[in-house]
Design a protein that fits this description.
This protein is of the alpha/beta class and 500 residues long. It contains 18 helices and 24 strands. It has 2 domains: 233 residues, Rossmann fold, CATH 3.40.50; 247 residues, Rossmann fold (3-Layer(aba) Sandwich), CATH 3.40.50. Bound molecules: adenosine-5'-triphosphate (ATP) and magnesium ion.
Amino acid sequence: MSGITKSFPGVRALDGVDLEVLPGETHCLLGQNGAGKSTLIKVLAGVHQPDGGAIVWQGEPVSLKSPIAAMRRGIATIYQELDLVEGLSVAENVFLGHEPTTAGFVVRGRAARTATAALLRRLGHPEIPPDRLVGALSAAQRQIVSMARALSHDVRLIVMDEPSAALDPDEVDNLFRIVDGLTSTGVAVVYISHRLEEIRRIGDRVTVLKDGRAVAVGLPAKDTPTRDIVAMMTGRTVEYVFPPRPEPARVASTGTPPVLTVEGLARQGEFAPFDLELRPGEIVGLAGLVGSGRSEVLETVYGARRPTAGRVLVDGRPLRPGSVRAAVRAGIGLAPEERKAQALLMQESVTRNVSVSSLSRFSYAGWLDRRAERAAAREATRALSLRPDDPDARIRTLSGGNQQKAVLARWLLRGCRVLLLDEPTRGVDVGARAELYAVIRRLADEGLAVLLVSSEVPEVLGLADRVLVLREGRVVHRAPAAELDEHRVLDLVMEGSPTP
Ligand SMILES: Nc1ncnc2c1ncn2[C@@H]1O[C@H](COP(=O)(O)OP(=O)(O)OP(=O)(O)O)[C@@H](O)[C@H]1O
Ligand SMILES: [Mg+2]
């Protein structure tokens, strides 16, 4: 791709970008939220038509008019926001958009199921049933289906836009095995991720985007110092990623009564009785794999799931079980994991998405004070450096990481007393992460109590005061974050030797 430009109303998303990908290489695309990564690969996938520039594919200038046109040439994409049809089966999704006949026979029914099963086996996930509805699958399984769809064509290039964001460490390992398998047969992979350690593991070369321009092209992925990469992405050096933790003595000050108390909370088949006391100013991290019950615990505390045992108390007063209203009224907020499905109003403005849970604050006698709503929302989004800094931008036009920040801004604005954060930095770039961590710590210093779930162990260890390690629905370890290291937590998460 050379000199690619692409503008949206009011934004120049790509400003003359070059990208060169060789057969059999893993080419990583790096850049801050909103740098233009997804836009670039959507041009390559035929989703967006570029305003200028040229694409040369296997030596030949091409114009990719549609995703199907790109697919037919052997360019497949696994999107950041997966584009599967929930109401169709796995096999139907995999063969969606194929020619009605492949190799002379109609790919329907049984043939599609058999072919899909073979692809799923090749991807290391034989357990996914080809006739299961995609809507019933987990995020990780959906991604595998998306990958099976890519492989159902004769691909020469696969683009993966933050594929690891929804995956556990062992699933990431499986993904990397798949990538290795593909590249060893000459298939090229374009890989987008905010996790630099992944780039080190599988990348061959790196292109860095900043504000719609390529600021570095074809750097060696293994040997370019992290400092340099971060500086190219952000235009500055990010020194302190995690804010300093307050004195343990202050946090553990048993003098302050807990704001949140969880007593023997359990859901049959999901997680065993769970106890927790959370004090104002404290950040407690829940570490564990996807499926260990982390999100379920948060959602049950929030009242979105009804517990089969135990209770949740705020300021010592029990909440009505299974009632989100009761939890919210008592000052509990949840920033959920699957933002798109659970949290964002895609057609609405940034302002409305941020203010939606606090509208009563801006309403007087039935009138909404739009100016106050906008001003308050803007303050919250600026605290997170949300881009573009435009309160009227539609949420769907924001980059993935910036959509994420909008959800967090919503809870900052609500001013809750207990904040439950599920994967708060998924898809957020390194620079913004540091800002986000600082905001979370500052809120805690102002008296907020935070319960944090993250699959990124360094994040839990860096941000939390105390850590609870969950495995298969059980707390297998509790310790101050300062007493743990990443290795130890991963051991506990995977093997789970119980607390002595
Ligand atoms: N459909 C659209 N309409 C208007 N603006 C858009 C649209 N899609 C993207 N943009 C804008 O283009 C810019 C680049 O966005 P893009 O999604 O490519 O970023 P990204 O590098 O993928 O970021 P992230 O890491 O957050 O996913 C952003 O300013 C974004 O708001
Ligand atoms: Mg993106």
